[in-house]
Amino acid sequence: MPGPHKWRHRFQAHVTRWTVPREAILNLLMSRPSKHMSAKEIYASLYRMYPGIGLTTIYRTLDLLVRAGLINRFTSGDGQNMYEFKSEEKKEHHHHLTCIQCGKIIDYSDFVEEELEFIKKIEESLARKHNFKVLGHNIEFYGLCDKCK
Amino acid sequence: MPGPHKWRHRFQAHVTRWTVPREAILNLLMSRPSKHMSAKEIYASLYRMYPGIGLTTIYRTLDLLVRAGLINRFTSGDGQNMYEFKSEEKKEHHHHLTCIQCGKIIDYSDFVEEELEFIKKIEESLARKHNFKVLGHNIEFYGLCDKCK
DNA sequence: TTACTAATGAAAATGGTTATCATTATCATT
DNA sequence: AATGATAATGATAACCATTTTCATTAGTAA
Fold it and tell me: Could you tell me which CATH number the domain at B89-149 has?
């Protein structure tokens, strides 16, 4: 039986049952804010304490957490999805810098104000022009990190 | 034996031989600027005129074209890669709007000037701060299109 | 405590992409 | 134009992240 949890209620708006795997996965992601992990990495991290949790459940729970808005999903360069806990603080809004050589991912969070302004302008324009409801965005830069240059 | 081609020389800076499949694939992408196609769609489109071209070669050639800077690759919402001919005209610089419901992709190219300014600022900052050489970026919005709202 | 059924996990399936390798075709040289 | 070295091709199998299936387990309301 899983215990109480800060996010339990928010999560339960999206699913009916609060279970051990769901708590474990959410805890793991929360314990490392803005740390990117793949489904397999999460599986491996949890294996010692929860050997019973299967990869399938990891995937299903990550889907739920994304839908509940508690974590972000983004595609790393090599085709697999990465997940990270979504902080509520605006100052931690950030994007990713991916090295196309070694795959290293750097977070950056400069120009957040300007970016938000820019994004807002675009969203308004898109809504007007294409009658499109913008729900989110991905901004990502790629290139070569210091070691791979 | 493949024929002459506007991009032949540019392409050959990256590979040694100019072949029929390479010409066919490049021609197809060029004939539909800013049309997004998956490897399979390209395969299907070429099948009537070139039944001998295999999917493997499509993938390999697309890689080459991306490396040669002649086409763009981006990941569509459902995980597969999409390709489009990269126009040289700055005015055709654009990004994508993906409907998370039906998968429809809309190009938009508003605020290009502001965006380029914004991007440049970020790239400079990243280069300075992380000693990172920015080679490109992806900006993508997702949400609900008019039909799926 | 019970009963309902959502959630789980093992295994198999799926699907896009990549590796292998024998065969073919390009192109500099003859 | 013919040759030959080897880059490129294509059929097949392999790969690998993710999803589906389905029998079993466990949360929750009663």
Answer: 3.30.1490.190
